Amino acid sequence: MSSTAAAGAIDHHHDSTTVTGIPNKKLLMWAFLASDCMFFGCLISTHLIYRLHPPPGTPNARDVFSIELTSFSTFILLMSSLMMALAVNSIQKGNLKSLRWSLLTTIFFGLIFLGCQVYEFRNFVFEKHLTITNSILGTTFFTLTGTHGLHVLIGVIWLTAMLIYSFTGRLTEKDAIDVESMGLYWHFVDIVWIVIFTAVYLLEYL
Amino acid sequence: MEALAKSDFLAKGETAAKPLVLWRPTAKTGLLSWLTTVDHKKIGFLYGISGLFFFIFGGFEALLIRIQLAVPNNSFLTSAQYSEMFTMHGTTMIFLVVMPMGAAFFNFIMPLQIGARDVAFPRLNAFSFWTFAVGAVILNLGWFMKDGAPDAGWFGYAPLTTRHFSPTHAIDMWVMGLQLLGVASIAAALNFIVTIINMRAPGMTMMRLPVFTWMTLFTSFLIVLSFPAITIALVEIMMDRLFGTNFFEVSNGGLPILWQHLFWIFGHPEVYILILPAMGIISEILPTFSRKPLFGYPIVVFSGASIGFLGFGVWSHHMFTTGMGTTATAAFALMTMAIAVPTGVKIFNWIGTLWNGHLTMRTPMIFAIGFLWMFMIGGLSGVMHSAAPSDAEQHGSYFIVAHFHYVLIGGSLFALFAGIHYWFPLMFGRKVSEFWGKTSFWFVFVGFNVTFFPMHFLGMEGMPRRTFTYDGDMGWNVGNMTATIGAFILAIGVAIYFLTMIYTFFKGEKTSKDPWDARTLEWSLPNPPPEYNFKVIPTVHARDGWWYEKRHTEEIQKEQAEHAKEDEAHGGIHMPYQSIYPFLASVGILIGALGVAVIDPASTTQDPGFWGPKVAVTILGGLIMFVSVVLWALEGNDGYHIHLNEDGSIKSEDHHAGH
Amino acid sequence: MIAPASTAHASGHELEQSKFWIFVQLAMLLAVITGLELVTVYLPFMKWILVAALVILSTVKFMFVIFYFMHLRWDKAFCTILFFIGLVLAGGTMWALLKLFSVADSKPLTLDAPAAIVRTVA
Question: Cβ contact (<8 Å) for C89 and A37?
């Protein structure tokens, strides 16, 4: 019926049904990520602007933050990105078994990251007495990292749904684009964290 | 030819696993067909109808404002009611009228212009519309509640919108409504971007795209890149209102000025979101009725691109009076002056199109020429504001009101009216009476100028915006009375316009295909267009594709016969299945948003059950949305195939599982 | 396995194989850069050097992830253009906002500020 299917090899970098050869879903995801750049750009700007003008009585961020924990979760998120890239690689080769292990590991790392964040938030609120209402630092910090955490959570739910779906037998090499666009989202969450790690955490230590 | 074959869906059908059988609505008429439609033309129609409905709503609010201001010290409206009126008039006209009317044309016309059978993501398109509808409902809910409608201005400047100054749910509804309209607009815009980039017919290169499609693309980019800024601003004000954070709480170090920046980072591109579609419509109408191709097509396109790009660098000219420092003020003043250049270039291109053309003065053309004039006046008063010292004089005065109404009515609305007239025969197969069309134009034109021209003078004489009344000895009496009279003439014009449209819809003169002898592909279709749009996907040979086809009939016929055979060999025309899940997802969003914005917490903050009902309703809405989205994903983007008779009627439908 | 992969790649086979190692090595590299960043903040250099170093290091990380993990390197250039439109506008907006809020005029008034203003006026 279709020459691409008959030949056996699917070209994952070219979709013959679209004008540009880029699959629609991939284009949609990249356009959405461009939009998300503005989203996080504004949110990170808000945080940095308020850090430019801390009102009197703002707690010292360095006393609140725990750089060890944050470095650990940064590392974990990077590793989850690696596993996500491997998952996309697996589905493009039609290797479902490898896909499932990679997805499972990605989810696992994502959950560790979220766990670290929950621990961090609890620590800040109950030990360091930094809450979302009691200072502008708390307000912008919790909103920014919380929004990022929400993105991670959505990603974890999406990954889990995909993992479950892979057991129905309907996920095949031809659907690699579905996994790939999910991967794009996940990597984007990672690069946002790369920026947050530097702009929100590391700069406070200078 | 592989690209033509659209074999994607066939390739998917080969897998061994059976598709999940979910409910597939197939109704073609009745309420269900509208709730489950994924047809871009029907969705465009829904956008258009909602836009026109809210236009009457917003117009009514405007008339009440004008009645209140007709005479000094009037007590027709209280100051509180007046605040609700101008807030909702602005919000309605921008978000619920001009934007959806633009979206209506994007949906209906753009896929036809590029020779596509639908948009790239038909169900996402339906979701965009329903989410828009949900946002519109939440925005207007206040009229029916004791809290009242939002009353902090369409720009919602903090700290006016904080809980301290606006304790009722009115602002919560404004925040939530705008947030959802943003989601809807972004989803729709992403869809249009992918459609224009990826779904063009063979031969339709980017530099052959009709200008309206180009402007759709630029507008979509502006939406996608500017709305996140207001999303963030709205999230911040919502956090302040719901959880007591300090973003705009001055006593704890909040900076209300940040709201203004974030709002205008969105707000200024938004202005171009409102005007670029209008420019696209005008660029279609002028060549058609001048019997000439558009003058300087590439320049018009690149001007559109530069307007879109520069539009992100001028936001602070709305804030010259806030004291940003000299460097910033100078920079934004220069950028604002710069952005007038591509706009001026376009005006000259349109004049160049008219120049030496064989002008036929039909109603769409008259509205289009009205646009040229009026938009130019609005543009000239606009570029005056780029000089910061001059802006400081005009800021917050009726001069500004006059300026943006010249741009929004004389610009956007005239073009939308022109567009409705122009495409009405294509959409409904009936033609609007020239006499009544022109009558409505003159009423609208005269009424509009009588209303808004005096406002320039009122502004210069110092009359402030957003003030519900004034004293009789300020010298503003004549101007205001004139404006009110003008508003009623304008209202009569609009009424004639709409009554004519309604009459034409039911009883108008039937027209043949392509009544204006136009140039772009949408006119190659029978009217109204069939649900599959193109019997055979056209091959585009020139910039004005349909114009070329009309002059090379034999060649085109041969080519189309060949392509029809190929289509049939590949299983016929692929149509997407209808789906209820986009609608259900939006219903979930509605419930969740009501939970966030409207439902009262139980009692006092000290009570642990404080968040009970609010959280319950929000989670319920979220769950409905989540389940709908999951089912939406599981149901897949399948479709069926149709086979056509010679005359274009449907011979048979082909519902093989897995297609 | 429910749907075993019966397909083998004839072309680009080697690239697919080597991608695995590219990804693994890249992840190690990113981890090392993260470590470098951590060390950087404790170095006794001038602040602007450190800030510049941090910005460069995180940009390098950012670019590696989008070009390798997110496949931009192997995809059509249009994906890159599309994403960079958003990235450049977001970066420009952030830069402009931070500039706007760093000028003296934007400093919020503190309790003793009115006195300062009175002094300058007088």
Answer: yes
- Interchain contact A35–C (C-beta under 8 A): yes
Nearest chain B CA: its distance from A168 CA (Å): 8
Which amino acid type is present at position B302? F
What residue in B sits closest to A8 (Cα-Cα)?
B11
> How many angstroms separate the CA atoms of B188 and B219, rounded?
11
A169 touches chain C (CB under 8 A): yes
d(CA B577, CA B608): 48
Comparing B64-78, B613-627, C16-30, which segment has the lowest mean pLDDT? Answer: C16-30
Quote ipTM for the complex.
0.93
pLDDT digits (tens, 9 = 90+) for A25-44: 999 999 999 999 999 999 99
Give dist(CA B599, CA B617) in Å, integer: 8
Q: What domains, with CATH codes, occur in chain B? A: 37-534 (1.20.210.10)
* Residue B356 backbone class (left: φ over 0; alpha: ψ -120 to 50; beta: rest): left
| Interface contact flag, A38 B253, Cβ < 8 Å | no
pLDDT at A1: 33
| Packed helices B256-290 and B297-310: angle between N→C axes, nearest 10 degrees | 170
Pair B304, B218: CB distance under 8 Å: yes
Of all residues in chain B, the percent with pLDDT exceeding 70 is 94
Global pTM value: 0.92
Confidence of residue C108 (pLDDT cuts 50, 70, 90): low
Domains of chain A: 13-205 (1.20.120.80)
The whole-angstrom separation of Cα B269 and Cα B226 is 6
Kindly list the partner chains of chain C, i.e. chains with 3 or more CB atom pairs below 8 Å.
A, B
Do B11 and A136 count as a contact with CB atoms less than 8 A apart? no
